[in-house]
Amino acid sequence: MTARLTLALDTGALRLPDGGKIAVFDPRDAADLSSLPRDRVLVVEPFRPDHQRWQAEGFDAVAATPAGERFAAAIVFLPRAKALARARLAQAAGLTDGPVIVDGLKTHGVESILRDLRGRVAVSDAIAKAHGKLFWFDAHAADLSDWTAAEARVDGFITRPGVFSADAVDDGSRLLTAALPQRLGARVADLGAGWGFLSAAVLERPGVEVLHVVEADATALDCARANLADPRAHFHWADATTWRPDAPVDCVVMNPPFHQGRAADTDLGRAFITAAVRVLGPQGQLYMVANRHLPYETALRAAFRDVTELPGDTRFKLYQAARPSRPRV
Q1: Are 221 and 199 in contact (CB under 8 A)?
Q2: Does the pTM of the predicted model rise above 0.85?
Q3: Could you tell me the domains of the chain?
């Protein structure tokens, strides 16, 4: 993506408007925005609560575009989920008075998006480089209103395109909710809460006074806010692996992610386990679900004095862990 955007600008194939703000949607970790005018760029990244990288490079960064703001140009780095990619393009086209520049990897479906757009609007020649393509179109010439993100209902819960398990309740989360005991304690945290399925089950347990709903995806957290109309729920747009509560909690529930891009990354799950230790009180408990093939037993036994595997199924393992053995820091 770095090479494509820089190449397009350096060769003059792509010219940005001389004035006006430029929205940059969902730039990934490898993105290089150094060729853009920093004072005119607004980075929009709802999946990252910590915008320090872009701010350190001199860019403004937000989770969502300010209401009513329009842009002279937009750059969309395509996500892998096609419904979210379409929704992001519709959003960019609706907010932009000039070109919408699209950058995507072949593994993220850029070829499919390019074909779809060519059936709707005049599209520039594509710049192909580094396993991806970059192209652009005039926002005013494109009617992408039917690609706009639409809320869905899953078992009565609101979801939106691109959030985890947007089309159905995750089987692991459903299995964990059925295994939760009636008493969880007064203070509970759901780490990586998504759109709130596990949190809703927690709020049904007697004795819960405070529930921390912690999620890094701002869109998913917005869904959780809509799904959990309960004053006991406190919502945190934060990285669950670094978030800290105002006081230790009695219980953590979690269905941690285990993918970084396409590759399985067990370090993510281990980081969630470490986070649970950090936020729990001395007698605290963890209830966790994980894919059966993932080896978390060693990390759990190093982090907790008592670890029990609960009945799961052929796809998922359930764990109850109690009494953190590492000092909280």
Answers
A1: no
A2: yes
A3: 2-147 (3.40.50.150), 152-324 (3.40.50.150)
